[in-house]
């Protein structure tokens, strides 16, 4: 998979984010009617296979030390190939290059494969934070990034 930086206005990226949000609403029973569009202040990566954009994710600064990984998504036909793990690693590298020492993320309790990915990649469960505090379906994770010697 080729991983590319994309602006939040990229039409292929926006289409993937919209698909991700629709799939999440279906998975949580449509309880949250919010539609999220790409954040202008987030840095996006897109995963491309055979010329097709099939995965996306973003890093958004929370503060000087911490960044949040957002909008992780792989099209269903491309899952179970290790693409999410590749993308997660690239997003962690992007956060690290920006000077962040910690990455956090939120996912839903109804996404066991996502939870398994994050746990297997060294993330630890933390209390829900920020905008997720009142969402009973949210589960949050954190990982410390390596510090340069």
UniProtKB/TrEMBL annotation:
Coiled-coil boundaries: none
Any GO molecular function: acyltransferase activity, transferring groups other than amino-acyl groups
A Pfam cross-reference name: Acetyltransf_1
Domain N-acetyltransferase: 3-146
Keywords: Acyltransferase, Transferase
Transferase as UniProt keyword: yes
Stored Gene3D superfamilies: 3.40.630.30
InterPro entries according to UniProt: Acyl_CoA_acyltransferase (IPR016181), Bact_Acetyltransf (IPR050832), GNAT_dom (IPR000182)
Source organism superkingdom: Bacteria
Database matches in PANTHER family: AMINOALKYLPHOSPHONATE N-ACETYLTRANSFERASE-RELATED (PTHR43877:SF2), AMINOALKYLPHOSPHONATE N-ACETYLTRANSFERASE-RELATED-RELATED (PTHR43877)
Protein name in the entry: N-acetyltransferase
Originating organism: Polymorphospora rubra
């Amino acid at each position: 998979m080729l991983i590319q930086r994309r602006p939040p206005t990229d039409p292929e990226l926006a289409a993937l984010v919209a698909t991700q949000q629709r799939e999440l609403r279906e998975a949580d029973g449509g309880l949250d009617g919010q539609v999220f569009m790409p954040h202008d202040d987030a840095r996006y990566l897109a995963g491309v296979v055979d010329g097709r954009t099939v995965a996306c994710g973003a890093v958004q600064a929370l503060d000087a030390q911490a960044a949040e990984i957002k909008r992780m998504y792989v099209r269903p036909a491309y899952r179970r190939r290790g693409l999410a793990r590749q993308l997660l690693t690239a997003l962690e590298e992007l956060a690290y290059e920006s000077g962040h020492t910690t990455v956090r993320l939120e996912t839903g309790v109804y996404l066991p494969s996502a939870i398994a990915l994050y746990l297997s990649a060294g993330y630890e469960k933390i209390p829900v934070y920020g905008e997720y505090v009142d969402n009973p379906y949210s589960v949050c994770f954190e990982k410390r990034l390596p510090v340069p010697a």
